[in-house]
Specification:
Blueprint: H1 2-11, H2 13-36, H3 43-66, H4 70-88, H5 96-112, H6 117-131, E1 136-138, E2 141-143, H7 148-242, H8 248-278, H9 286-301, E3 304-308, H10 318-337, E4 343-350, E5 354-361, H11 373-384, E6 388-394, E7 397-405
Parallel strand pairs: 3-4
Antiparallel strand pairs: 1-2, 4-5, 5-7, 6-7
Helix pairs in contact: 2-3, 2-5, 3-4, 4-5, 5-6, 5-7, 6-7, 7-8, 9-10, 10-11
Length: about 400
């Protein structure tokens, strides 16, 4: 848990900016003091104490970056202010160094604490900082207080920094929340898209399987009907053959019954065959299959999809049929899922030696094209038959060019 929180700290641009600004502010303060301390009455007395306070302050700032408990953060913030007070107290009317360190503390409070805690702590620190700018005495020397002009300017600058840092914090949180929502929606879209594709395959399989089962059922009925009738006729014909001429009347009755059985069986067989003939198994393939795939995808996603078949009249064989189907399916899915496209154009054209397919969408494209499972599978299927595939970003979206040899 703690490890994950620490990793999250490094994922926050605002938190990283706050700690970097704090370190830079301390470095600048040390440099300024090193250049200016000779002009201070107590400069030589305060030299090494200033360095010690500044080092402890920057260490607290670094520790504050990794702390995730609000109460501990507040304690460290007030410790940082205490060191700020100890650094600024002997400087008297020279408020420049103190203001630089105070600005970094303001940013840390705004970025580390949540609303309304950051505003409350900001207000307390602000009033403490302003009240501390009075006449002081250090090393038995009276040090001038900050002038009203400098104090007013300091208050204005401090309030401006507070407002800007709080606005940046709020904006960053809104962006983070929107990013999480987008990731959640993208995950939902991915699942729905996969489910839609799965349902398409399932429905087609179920439809064909249902028709096959129905054909088997009718076949069983024909078998039972014909088998039963023929068995009866054979038995009656054998019985009639065993009768002598003296039993002509009985033999005629048996033959008449056999004829009736044959007529009845023929009628039932014709009925079953007629039913079987009307229940044809129709499987979409070629252009019809593409039309059905595009129609279902367009209804499910709302994307404007248009297909231009050019001089295409049909596909070469079932294998190419399946490759084209999976390529278009994967291309449309990626355009919707990753490219957030609203328009997809699919074009076919046959040359003397190859079939060319182009899938062009108006989406945002991809900064880095990585072969995922779907794209890798698409590429493998096409290269296995000696074809070529080119996937790239274009000025107005994303484009997939496929070339399949007709041999």
């Amino acid at each position: 848990m703690i490890k994950q929180v620490i990793l999250d700290r490094f994922k926050s641009p605002l938190r990283i900016s706050a700690v970097l600004l704090s370190v830079i502010s301390h470095v600048i303060s040390i440099i300024l003091f090193s250049l200016y301390y000779r002009n201070l009455e107590i400069g030589y007395y305060f030299l090494w104490q200033f360095y010690a306070f500044a080092i402890v302050s920057v260490v607290l700032s670094l520790m504050l970056f990794f702390i995730y408990e609000t109460s501990t953060q507040i304690i460290f913030i007030f410790l940082r202010y205490l060191l700020l007070f100890l650094i600024g107290y002997p400087l008297g009317n020279y408020i420049g160094i103190e203001l630089i360190l105070y600005a970094s503390l303001i940013i840390e409070i705004s970025f580390y604490l949540s609303f309304p805690g950051n505003i409350i702590v900001q207000s307390i620190i602000f009033f403490l900082f302003m009240l501390s700018q009075g006449e002081v005495s250090a090393w038995q020397k009276n040090i001038e207080r900050v002038s009203i002009h400098d104090l007013t300017a300091t208050a204005v600058y401090s309030l401006i920094i507070i407002v800007i840092s709080l606005m940046l914090n709020k904006y960053s949180k809104n962006c983070t929340e929107k990013t999480k929502k987008i990731e959640h929606l993208d995950s939902a879209i991915t699942q729905l898209t996969d489910a839609n594709i799965g349902f398409q395959s399932y429905v087609k399989t179920l439809e064909i399987q249902t028709l096959i089962e129905e054909r088997k059922r009718v076949s069983r009925e024909i078998h039972d009907t014909v088998g039963y009738v023929l068995t009866n006729i054979i038995m009656m014909m054998e019985a009639a053959a065993l009768l002598t001429d003296e039993k002509k009347i009985k033999r005629n009755e048996i033959l008449s019954t056999a004829r009736d059985q044959a007529q009845k069986g023929l009628s039932e067989t014709r009925t079953a065959l007629r039913h079987l003939r009307n229940e044809k198994i129709v499987k979409a393939y070629g252009i019809n299959m593409i039309e059905e795939l595009v129609s279902v995808f367009q209804q499910a996603t709302g994307i404007d999809i248009k297909v231009e078949y050019g001089n295409l009249s049909g596909f070469t064989n079932d294998r190419i049929d399946a490759i084209i189907f999976r390529t278009i399916q994967e291309g449309m899915t990626n355009a919707f899922r990753h490219g957030m496209a609203t328009v997809i154009r699919i074009n076919f054209w046959i040359t003397q030696k190859s079939l060319r397919v182009t899938i062009h969408d108006n989406g945002i494209g991809s900064k880095e094209i990585v072969d995922g499972i779907g794209v890798a599978g698409m590429r493998e299927r096409i290269t296995d038959i000696g074809g070529n595939i080119d996937i790239r970003n274009v000025d107005d979206g994303f484009k997939i060019d496929v070339e399949i040899p007709l041999e």
